Structure formats: C-alpha cells, structure tokens
Amino acid sequence: MLRAPYSISIRRSRRSRREAALSETSSIKWEAAQWIERRMGDEAFDEAAFDAWLAGDPLCRSTYDAMWRRIMGSDMDAALQAYGRVGGSGHAWLVGGVTVLLVMLGGYKSLPLIALYLAQPQDYSVVDGKVRAVTLADGTQLTLGGGAQVKIRYTRHDRVVELTQGTLFAKVAHDEERPFRIDTGNARIVDVGTSFEVSNKPGSIRVAVASGVVRFGRNGWFDAPIQLQARQVAILDKAGLNRIADVKPEEVARWRGEWIEYRGAPLRQVIADLQSLSPLPIDIADKGLAEKPVSGRIRLTDPVGQLENLSITHAFRVHKTERALTISKS
Fold this sequence. Notes:
Elements: H1 3-40, H2 47-56, H3 58-69, H4 74-87, H5 90-105, H6 111-118, E1 122-125, E2 132-135, E3 141-154, E4 159-171, E5 180-183, E6 187-191, E7 195-201, E8 204-211, E9 213-218, E10 226-229, E11 233-237, E12 240-244, E13 259-266, H7 267-275, E14 282-284, H8 287-290, E15 293-299, H9 303-313, E16 316-320, E17 325-329
Parallel strand pairs: 4-5, 14-17
Antiparallel strand pairs: 1-3, 2-3, 3-4, 4-7, 5-6, 6-9, 7-8, 8-11, 9-10, 11-12, 13-15, 16-17
C-alpha cells in the first residue's frame, strides 16, 4: 500500500533536485537574458544597475556578451533543453520553451526572435579549392569559396546567414523590412541591399564592399560597428577593428571566376587576389618583390599551390607559420 506514494515522493524529490540544479547552473544565463530584454525594451536602461550586475560575478560579462552574439543559439538552446527535461513530453517542451523565451525576452514583442530560433536552417558548403553559387529564396546570390560553410535562416522579419568558416561573396536582394545579416561568431555584418565579400579565418574577419553600404563590428553590445561603403575594406583581429587599403569594386572577390589572366601585374596585386581564399594571411616581406611583374593564368581557388608555383618561376621563398604565409627573396 505504501509503494505508490513512496515512488511518487522519490520522483518528486528527484525532480526537485533537477529543478534546483537547473536554477543554480542557469541563474546567470537567466539574468543575462533579462538584461538583454531590458536593453531591447522601450524603457530607459539602468546602466548603473547593469554595471553592478556585471561586476558581481566574472561570468556575467562573458555570459551576457556570448548570449547576445548567439541569442538564438547554443546558450538559449541549452536552457530550453534543460527546461524540457524537467517538463516532460516533446509537445510540452515546445510550448513550455516558447513560454520561457517569451518571459525571458520580453513578451510577444519578441516573437520575431522566437521565429528566428524555430526556423529550420538551410546548410550549404563547398570543398576547399572549389566555388559554389547559391541563390536564396529572396533572390540574394551567394558565392562560396575557401571551404565555406553557412547556415541560413529566413523568417518574415529576418535574413540571417551564419558563416562558420571560409569566404563568401553576397549580392543581396534589397528589402528594407528585412535587413540581411551575416554572423561569423565574433563579428556581425549588416546590410540592406548591396554586394560585398566576407572572409572568416582563424583570428580574423575581413569585409570588402563592392557596392552599397554595410555595418561591420563585433557581435556584442560593447563595441560600436563601423560603416563601410563601396571600395572600403576593414579587418577585425586581435588588434581590433580597423580600416585597411581601399580596393576597386571589380577587385572584390575575383576568385568567383576561379582563374584570372595576368599580364605584367605586380605581384602584390596577385597576392591580394589570392588573399581571400588563403587559409592564412599572406605577407610580402620585401617591397621590391611586391612590384615584380607577373604574367600568366593563376587559379585563385588554390592559393597555396599557386604560391608554390610562383615561388619557383619568380625566385622567392614562402615561409609558413601558424599565423601567416610570408614571401621573401630567395
């Protein structure tokens, strides 16, 4: 007679322990989500209280910034999955999870974010050394290179591309109601309708604009983005976010054609074209070498192999480190 109540008591006790564990391990994430909701809301934001919260625990700042960068990514997903394990059935998890997000992110004004989270992503990739053209549902055209991998989520309110590695060129269909966004983890590039190149390499993100205007910056609240117009190029690396030398619009993402015919072009121009798909930055150590003329067909989708060939025909050395490929005189 005592077995059933005793069993129920044990289940309730275990569930209570799970809920307590969830509360303890997720409290900072939940608090971070509430601060995000306040930041996104219409009321005045209490900067002093926010700073006090950040100072209260070393994990607060990193959790907040990471959650903002991937607001519909792994952090939220983990919270929802933990909630679902407590809650029971799959249907209850979905309904409960949406309810949790509504509470965490500010009620029904957050529905666009929830729609983005629930959107089924489309995955596209290309092997290194090849180029792949992709046309999205809105007419936006992507060209993938350098072993690029992307996840695409489209909703009524958002157009989001996650570039996890490699390089892409985007010719974006104009839509003022749905800005086009590329996330690379550390960086975010936002555009309304233009064409530009994004290269995501270990330690650096590079953006070059062929036409229109984009905003480029760190993916978080604590860094202001910069605005780039046609011809302008910027790089985000350990030194920060900085503009670098301008380029001609026709020189942006020349690798889309795979092969380029050069006739007396300076080596620095060839290197600039190989740079986009190179696994590492390419540096020319000697200024005189940079002006050495190059003629012939170069396959831009094989930067390392082409550098080796050029080093033989033009008498220079290629030194590889963990951070760069450096070209110097033999």
